[in-house]
Amino acid sequence: MGKLPKWADYALIPFLNVLLAFFVSGLVVLFIGEDPIKAMGIMLKGSLGSPRAIGYTLYYATNFIFTGLAVAVAFHARLFNIGGEGQAGVAGLGVAFVCMYVDWPHWSLALPAAIIGAALFAGIWAAIPAYLQSKRGSHIVITTIMFNYIAAALLVYMLVNVIKDPGSMSPQTRAFVPGSVLPTAKEMLGWIGVDFPRSPINISFLLAIAACFGVWILIWKSRLGYEIRAFGHSESAAGYAGISGFKITMIAMTISGSLAGLMAINTVMGEGKRLVLDPVEGAGFIGIAVALIGRSHPLGVFLAAILFGMLYQGGFDLSFDMPKVSREMILVIQALVILFTGALENLVRMPVTRLFLRFTKGAA
Known about the structure:
With 364 residues, the chain is mainly alpha-helical.
């Protein structure tokens, strides 16, 4: 079978997959006795219908950008990092230590330190499975899944026995020092005279955009990125070219883990202003779908993250306005998107490729 042009591979195929997923989701909504057109309208209004809704959508999207980029970087080295959930959770500890025990005079000083703390904790956590695969032959998929559970247990232990707020019955830390509180979109836009409603979106969204640009530079404009892609395409050929498989595996997974860990800046430092028991809330697994839909390209990851942010935020309004469409139904819709963009991708790709080849032969 021939090869599709880049515009079709990176844009048309994902668009058709998502469209097909929403069509099947509409049939499911129709089956339970609700109007799918009305349901879609509620979701769009709930996610994009007001500045406040947009703020919440972009807040969720920020998490998915970081975890999607994490999976994408690992994908380029043909490494399947399913440990974003645990890596982001451990990164929360790094952010908490930085923001609780240092009396920061201003958030602009606390933010770089928190970024280093989050990236360091998550990067080390991801490097352990990378080492186990490179030196011991342990499969990266199995070890990263296992490390999710270890990270969850570690987080529980730390929040219950070590850094728990003495005045709280809940497993959480005390509030971070005032100098580490990040500005929200309302405050930032207020600096230029724009009145924006309160929402959890904060300066982390700009950090996520910067991360997209940084990953693009890394993968397509740097020597290290070339080595990562070469290793991903053919490990044996990369070895003949003098590229160390051990080095690339360690570096790619460390960068991947660090990117996943940066979502803790948004949830722990930005929105929560303290570390709670589950600061990730499934964003690590959603990052896999975001990377698949976005074809592991930063721009695609950004757009796919916006899509899942809309599903998250619009889903809240949909479950409220349509009681039959529960939160579990929103998970079904997300699962269908993952199914059609992942396991059933060839369901769209093969007929589109045949159609494209037929037209190109006819034109020739």
